[in-house]
Amino acid sequence: MATSKSIGSPSRKAMSASSSDVQLHICGVPFSLNREILAARSAKLAALLKENPEDDLSHLLGDIPTDSQTFELVARFCHGFDINLSPENVIKVLCLAHYLGMSEIHSTNNLIKKACFYFQNNILPSWNKCIKALKSAETILQQAADLSLVDACAESIIAKVLNDPGLLGEPIRNVTTTDDDSENDENAYKPNVRRRLFVLDWKSEDLTLLSIALYEPIIRAMVHRKVPLEYVASSLFHYLNKWVFPGTKGEDEPSIHERNSHREIIEAVERVLPQERGLIPCSLLSQILQSAIILDANTDCKSRLEIRIGKQLDQATVKDLLIPAQGYAKEEQYDTESVKRILKNFYGNYSSTDTSGLIVVAELVDEFLAEVANDIDLKLNTFLALAELSQAASGGTNRNADGMYRAIDIYLDKHRYLTDREREEVCRVLECNKMSPEACEHAAQNEKLPVRVMVQILFSVQLKLKDTVTKRIQRGSDNRLLKLEEGEEDERGTSSSEEEMTKAEMEKMGSRVLELEKECDMMRREIQRGSYQHKIQKGKTSAWKEMKRKLGCMTSMDETKCHVKKKKVHPR
């Protein structure tokens, strides 16, 4: 650009170069600028010209830290043209003006003063313009940080959030898993609609536009300044949803650069993730953990996410634990090792005297086992390790064992190749005395169960019946004593027949129980001698029916269908 008239021409090419011009190439674009005009505004160029009055200065100015568009704006200012400052260019202009020494000390009404005035009065008061300005500074981040421009924008953003946390978006709602999961996911994390209606400055810009190098320190400062954590958590989730989750859900394999970028983001977000229990639903924590595993995030990141899930595992659903295994050498469908670590974290940190949380998690493990039991590659040791964790932690509680029975039934069905000894090992974790009558009926006809286990179930039913009979007899005796104490001797004649009938019924029930005890005892001795194996395989399906016939309590219940309730699960 030989003259001021050529400044701003689309080609930026010199029309007629002269000896008084400085020839520069900025990002491959040639500029031809008048020395004296530049020196009048730039202290740096004035000093260079003074030291090298006749030399070509292009080699001394070849490393100007800017882009061609910003340099053209500065050049136009030097030549007396009006320039249009905006959120997208003001920080770049300030950085270049500072580099060239365009201050009031060198020349009045210089560019630094003009750009600073615009930055102070037009950028900092505005939420959107601050974010746009920060976004534009990502290519010259160190320069902008050295001039405290990044801090100024960050401080303005934080102050606005402290005044109105809703600028970060609405807090996350803990949506209950239903059949309409997709609709819930869509509605659960919407931004603050009121903000769009009443803030004239709002054009949907938010912090998720920023790179992680800017976003992480701003969020960290917000946490330090006591911004409500539920809003911080919402912003963090939106950030992951914008930059990470689409890449880990898509069918196309991300490039190495994308994987590295996503890994950096998820590790940074995890570092500032609030620790408070229940603040972030288990479903979202599970989603973050799965992404971290897919992206091969560092061990500390994955471990801390597992700890977070473990702290609130009693709030999780089975879907949250169905974490797909990764890697070409994966042997199982789901990452059961991660689930085991999560369980250990929960049990290791459970300090409440209320056992309801233990029962909830034990039932959750039962559901999880029922799902993973369908995996033909699930190892026996893995199945048992998970079952034993649940059993040990919920021991002494009144937890129903139907869920564990269902999981064992599915595992035995999908792993028909197991030996008799291995099948007995699987059933070792089944607490027969905690099974419902429906589950016991199904188990007594279940050909997949080892004979020894079926007999154990019959024994547990026998003991329950005996206990019931004893209680009913005792209750009848207590009622008679109570009536005598209340002076109802005169009604003996009326009630004597009823009492005799009750007593007879109890004696009849007691004799049936004794008969059943003898038969079960005989079955046990025969099993120990090995002589009952053939008999039981031949007539196994009638064992339970025969027992019920002897007790006089036959039902029309379906003999083959398992009545253990199966919860609907939507695998990821």
TrEMBL record:
Pathway where this protein functions: Protein modification; protein ubiquitination
SUPFAM superfamilies reported in the protein's UniProt record: POZ domain (SSF54695)
InterPro entries from the UniProt entry: BTB/POZ_dom, NPH3/RPT2-like, NPH3_dom, SKP1/BTB/POZ_sf
Membrane found in the keyword field: no
Annotated BTB domain residues: 20-87
Origin: domain of life: Eukaryota
Sequence segments annotated as region (Disordered): 484-508
Occurrences of domain NPH3 (ranges): 201-464
Alphabetically ordered keywords of this record: Ubl conjugation pathway
SMART domains: BTB
Family (UniProt): Belongs to the NPH3 family.
PANTHER family reported for this sequence: OS12G0117600 PROTEIN (PTHR32370)
Protein name (Swiss-Prot/TrEMBL): Phototropic-responsive NPH3 family protein
Biological source species: Anisodus tanguticus
